[in-house]
What we know:
There is one protein chain. The protein has four helices and seven strands, in the order ααββββααβββ. By secondary structure, it is α+β, with helices and mostly antiparallel strands. A seven-stranded antiparallel β-sheet has the order 1-2-3-4-7-6-5, with helices on one face. Strand 5 and strand 6 form a beta hairpin. The chain is globular and about 45 Å long. It starts with a helix and ends with a strand.
Amino acid sequence: MPIRYIFLTTACFAIASIGLYGMLTLSSNSTQPAIDQSPSPQIKLSGLHMTADEFKNKFNGAVGKYRLNGLSITRLNIKDSSDQGTGTFEYVFNNELRLIGVVHADENVQEVRLYATGDTSEPTGGILLTAIATLILTTNNEYTYNDAQNVIQDIGILDRDVNQRDFDGATVRNGLEYRFSVQDHDHSTFEITVAK
């Protein structure tokens, strides 16, 4: 299917371009030690260990650092759900991309999800993959854009033989699970949760 290859080529080009720019702007950090990509057995996370405001600030920090225009979060409104002791927040980037987060009673973010609509076999201009990379950077302070790209590759989103109409891939890093799935050819979800 040529449309799928156009999508994959566009996505790879967008990620490579942003990653290359990030490498050039962060060349002074090239002496950092390698990041252990396997989950540590000592890490017992009960959430993402950040409040909704801290999440927003870290997300916007990654957007500014890598100049990912069009992805800044202006305001997160938290809605309480008194029955379960949790709350949620939502942010709409555009008509086809929105972010949902779950906040526990201790005000820490428990999980985040990106919901995208639109034909997954069509080119997206890279905004979905850029938003995924930004969320990965938000949840890993030490990660560079290249590390985020590696997570995306481990999930399998960029594999040439991926069936964009029926996909479910995941990887675990530092106690967090990153999962991308396509529910049907019009809806896809990227989520970050604590690994079980």
